[in-house]
Amino acid sequence: MKIARTISEARAFINELRQQQEGSAAGRIVGFVPTMGYLHEGHASLLRRSRQESGISVLSIFVNPIQFGPNEDLDRYPRSEEADLQLAEREGVDVVFLPSVEEMYPEERRTTVTVTGVTERLCGASRPGHFDGVATVVSKLFNIIKPDKAFFGAKDAQQVAVLQKMVKDLNMDVDIVPCPIVREEDGLALSSRNAYLSEEQRREALVLSRSLREASIRIQTEDVTPQQIVDDVTQAIQTSPIAEIDYVEMLSFPDLAPIHPEHGLSELRASGGSAILALAVKFGSTRLIDNAIMKLKEAPLHV
Amino acid sequence: MKIARTISEARAFINELRQQQEGSAAGRIVGFVPTMGYLHEGHASLLRRSRQESGISVLSIFVNPIQFGPNEDLDRYPRSEEADLQLAEREGVDVVFLPSVEEMYPEERRTTVTVTGVTERLCGASRPGHFDGVATVVSKLFNIIKPDKAFFGAKDAQQVAVLQKMVKDLNMDVDIVPCPIVREEDGLALSSRNAYLSEEQRREALVLSRSLREASIRIQTEDVTPQQIVDDVTQAIQTSPIAEIDYVEMLSFPDLAPIHPEHGLSELRASGGSAILALAVKFGSTRLIDNAIMKLKEAPLHV
Q1: Tens digit of pLDDT for each residue in A13-71?
Q2: In this predicted complex, what is the ipTM?
Q3: A2-179 homologous superfamily
Q4: Active site residue B260
Q5: Pick from B118, B136, B140: which is nearest to A110 by CB?
Q6: Looking at domain B192-295, which CATH architecture does it have?
Q7: Which of A62, A118, A170, A255 should one mutate to test binding to chain B, selecting the residue with the greatest count of B CBs within 10 A?
Q8: Which of B60, B113, B136 to probe the A interface (max A CBs under 10 A)?
Q9: Farthest-apart Cα atoms in chain B, separation
Q10: What are the extents of the domains in chain A?
């Protein structure tokens, strides 16, 4: 496994590996997993998928300052380079790209990639500028790594939607591959930010996955409206005395357009569309997100 | 010479040519000249440079609607596909990419590449949104063609500055190569928009190159201030009864930052810096631009 700390090293290592694979089209495929490090089993699942589908598997670890707001957790974002490198080695990564902030932003940055529409709701509304920072850094990473496929976790569902739209609009020659959310046995979605949680917060946070699971069942079995679902989930979360809701929303997926709250889901059901039920909730100063993406059955199943 | 009207054709043709050049690193270099067509000798000079420096020479012709303002000349922008293809053939182009608007913008576009700073003055100030449209379409074209070098005329000096900053900020793996302005024998800078000019306008427009030439001599031979130079050029242009000035500005180059109008050029001279004297002037409904970029001598030459 090679470790590149500069852009030119990363390019050189990947070019070398590509050249070694000359003659094998599959062997030359570059799979890429961009992360902010503090890797967990969710990241490991992305790396395994990248290893399976690519001849050259690349991981980047970069805590990207421009996707954090002024009052967010940039300064305390957890880091553990050594453990990350061990996990990468174990998952068969060929090249780890570990740039410094100075390497990525050496002079005053004037260029921003902006995606509108899909960024207007959910985290786009609560974290202004966040998705500009994500789209800009992912553009940079794609231009450095030149991957054929890039793997992202579905926990950041809006991020996936934003990047899919960006890639389509700008004709980037890369497949965005969303991968399923990985959860703890008790349901908590894996996140590097779970490290911030106290024991009590960790226990209370289970209300998120539980309420999403119950709502998913209700959507598939009853003729409910999005407003009823949002109300259910909101009430369930409010049973926790320490949960502070940022948003609970139900939207169509992947376009993240509003579904009329009182109209029921019949239109979406008829078109075989998908919906996302997404939430962001704070426990103390730690903001967690989770979601459920549902392909809607034509009529509710009566179980 | 291959003609690609779709993105997938363009990619396939270029990949094929790259594969034929396997083993020759120089032969695999892709040179790219993006244009809006109605090609003239200025474009031909870019294509010759591309032919000299690349194994594979690609031309695109696309009148990009998103870089035109609502009251600009998109609808009447001159086109002549047949003559363009003849010129391309003559200049040894390997692949011409000639997409339709639907091919480039098949669905509602939500992604924009924005460059601030260098876009604030000159044409960026008089044509709001213009450089967003340029940066976005050039990003798309770069992602489609994947050139190693891209050749642009220095007449659009601000465009060159914007694209150089974009490429640097987003780590695009392409060299932006600015090429000298090509002029008619009488000094008029070549432009597809010259086709709009009446005989009288064509004659009066000579004041632009003449005033730039005189100002360049004065800058290199006298200790003048930018304000004096701008006043000189403004007065010279105003001798034409039909010239309508949009802007005359003198800025540092390539950062396009203001030089204090009264401070003289001593600081720039001392640092061996460059300056640009740029103008945009309307003759009837036709807006022409021209500029002179000057590397400043340490002290004015007394000739």
Answers
A1: 999 999 998 788 889 999 999 999 999 999 999 999 999 999 999 999 999 999 999 99
A2: 0.95
A3: HUPs (3.40.50.620)
A4: no
A5: B118
A6: 2-Layer Sandwich (3.30)
A7: A170
A8: B113
A9: 61
A10: 2-179, 192-295
